[in-house]
Automatic annotation (TrEMBL):
Matching SUPFAM superfamilies: ALDH-like
GO molecular function, one term: oxidoreductase activity, acting on the aldehyde or oxo group of donors, NAD or NADP as acceptor
PROSITE patterns xrefs: ALDEHYDE_DEHYDR_CYS (PS00070), ALDEHYDE_DEHYDR_GLU (PS00687)
UniProt-listed CDD domains: ALDH_F8_HMSADH
Gene3D superfamilies: Aldehyde Dehydrogenase, Chain A, domain 1, Aldehyde Dehydrogenase, Chain A, domain 2
Similarity field: Belongs to the aldehyde dehydrogenase family.
Organism: Aequoribacter fuscus
One Pfam short name: Aldedh
Keyword terms of this UniProt record: NAD, Oxidoreductase
InterPro entries assigned to the protein according to its UniProt record, in alphabetical order: Ald_DH/histidinol_DH, Ald_DH_C, Ald_DH_CS_CYS, Ald_DH_CS_GLU, Ald_DH_N, Aldehyde_DH_dom, OHmuconic_semiald_DH
Protein name: Putative 5-carboxymethyl-2-hydroxymuconate semialdehyde dehydrogenase oxidoreductase protein
PANTHER family according to UniProt: 2-AMINOMUCONIC SEMIALDEHYDE DEHYDROGENASE
Length: 485
């Protein structure tokens, strides 16, 4: 996948003059150039998508669309190793996480929404009328039209297909703007779309940056009917302002500062396992990840010691090796941001339980975006690393004494994406789950996904829910047809 990443517009790969470099997270080597879509390129992509809605795609039956989406999923599965390699090259994350989490979810994201759209009923109301003949109201689902899909870099293929799957299932056409850090799998998916016969213009990809670049050109384009975005809360605010012009609908999955809550009656080993994953999977670059851990006082010391052991057991290195369990951050820029928080934690008086710096790496990887898994204790809740989303492999652990106290601590944030609660008291699990202000709560688990369930954030972590029938709310419009009999 080295070389040049091109746009995919109206069924063809096209280049543009402006380019920017892609560096490997593993060693900062220059591994590719990426075309940067101009206003004219974006306009061509939006025009192609709009035209596709009036072409064969717009005329397909649901059954025909569903068959196409299954073909997309099957082709992703057939080219599985290429997707694994492409995303591994962009993110530096381990082959294991690619093979077991991110790439299979790409295929699953097409199948689930093909199944949903095939089985969803429409609503009908019969009504009486003064002439005694009555009328029937029937709501039919209409695709919204051209959907802009703006994606982040942390789980590029999973997050992009989580939007493209339902958008296409509902009969829309999409223009995807992948993150500037992760062009590979969106581009590879274009080949899949072409090869399985998705009509030209239904799936378009425009590469580029955000502000004053492709992302802004796309989200402010007047012929985009709706915008689905996953990324930082501040970017969401900028996109919302762009969407206000023309009154376009938005679906946002934004940042988080998620709390893990561990009660003393939990299954200790499972809780350690779970919090290890939620804090450090994907080098902490998971929106659902845990950066604040609250542990009931009787098991606090034991918990901190056990999590320290887990953090120190990660093996950073070449992601293609089975022995590697830990990757770099996405970029040197993100490394600087995370390291600045490591410094702030030290300045603000944290006890550094483990980490806090850069791991020793062999010469060929020494220039990569590596940081150590890091655990802090003893900070006040006002400390920067307890307040801000860092998006790195780090967490602060604090003891608590009562259920009421921990609920208050968990809720003391503007974010509200997810939480993970560890206890064997089912009543307490249910009470606490009902009180933590988030969109997604896991009890005795984390990131256990049933794709039929509503997924999204509360407070500043998002707008709307995607997943199962909930995605239909965003990707279609209901048109009520009232037939007087
Ligand atoms: N809630 C969720 O489900 C979820 C999932 C994954 C990631 N995230 C969040 O994503 C963030 C990490 O991703 P990121 O750093 O790529 O996010 P980001 O907001 O910096 O960028 C996301 C995308 O938006 C584009 N963009 C940036 N500015 C833009 C603008 N003004 N107009 C239009 N497009 C613009 C970027 O080019 C990129 O494609 C974290 O905050 C994380 O919590 C949330
Ligand atoms: O990093 C964020 C991971 C988000 C996961 C999903 O959006 C999902 O599982 O659907």
């Amino acid at each position: 996948m080295t070389g040049l990443y091109r746009h995919f517009i109206n069924g063809e790969f096209v280049e543009s003059e402006e380019r920017f470099p892609k560096y490997s997270p593993l060693n900062n080597a220059h591994i590719a150039d990426i075309c940067e879509a101009s206003k004219a390129d974006v306009d061509a992509a939006v025009k192609a998508a709009k035209a596709a809605m009036k072409g064969p795609w717009g005329r397909m039956t649901v059954e025909q669309r569903v068959a196409k989406l299954y073909a997309v999923a099957d082709e992703i599965t057939r080219r599985f190793d290429e997707f694994v390699a492409a995303e591994m090259q962009d993110t530096g994350q381990t082959k294991h996480v690619m093979e077991h989490v991110f790439i299979p979810r790409g295929a699953a994201n097409f199948k689930i929404f093909a199944d949903v759209i095939k089985n969803v009923p429409t609503e009908t109301f019969e009504m009486a009328t003064p002439d005694g003949r009555g009328a029937i109201n029937s709501a039919i689902r209409i695709p919204k039209g051209v959907i802009a899909v703006v994606c982040p870099w942390n789980a590029p293929f999973l997050l992009m297909t989580w939007k493209v799957g339902p958008a296409l299932a509902c009969g829309n056409a999409v223009v995807v703007k992948p993150s500037e850090e992760t062009p590979a799998t969106a581009t590879l998916l274009a080949e899949v779309m072409r090869d399985v016969g998705i009509p030209d213009g239904v799936y378009n990809v425009v590469h580029g940056l955000g502000p004053n670049s492709t992302g802004e050109f796309l989200t402010s384009h007047k012929d985009v009917d709706a915008i689905t975005f996953t990324g930082e809360t501040q970017t969401g605010a900028a996109i919302m302002a762009a969407a206000a012009k023309g009154i376009r609908d938005v679906s946002f999955e934004l940042g988080g500062k998620n709390a893990g809550i561990v009660f003393a009656d939990c299954d200790f080993d499972k809780a350690i396992e779970g919090i290890t994953r939620s804090a450090f999977l994907n080098t902490g670059q998971v929106c659902l990840g845990t950066e604040r851990v609250y542990v009931e006082r009787p098991i606090f010391d034991r918990f901190v010691a056990a999590l320290k052991d887990k953090a120190e057991a990660f093996v950073p290195g070449n992601p293609a090796l089975d022995s590697t369990t830990y990757g770099p951050l996405i970029s040197k820029e993100h490394q600087s941001k995370v390291l600045s928080y490591y410094q702030k934690a030290a300045d603000e008086g944290a006890t550094i339980v483990t980490g806090g710096g850069v791991p020793d790496m062999p010469a060929e990887l020494a220039s990569g975006a590596w940081v150590q898994p890091t655990i802090w204790t003893d900070l006040p809740e006002t400390a920067s690393v307890v307040q801000d989303e860092i998006f790195g492999p780090c967490c602060h652990i604090r003891p608590f004494d009562t259920e009421e106290e921990v609920i208050e601590l968990a809720n003391a944030t503007d974010y509200g994406l997810s939480t993970t609660i560890w206890t064997n008291d089912i009543g307490r699990a249910h009470r606490v789950a009902g009180s933590v202000e988030v969109g997604i709560t896991w009890v005795n688990s984390w990131f256990l996904r049933d794709l039929r369930t509503p997924f999204g954030g509360s407070k500043r972590s998002g707008i709307g829910r995607e997943g199962g029938v909930h995605s239909l709310e965003f990707y279609t419009e209901l048109r009520n047809v009232c037939i007087k009999l």
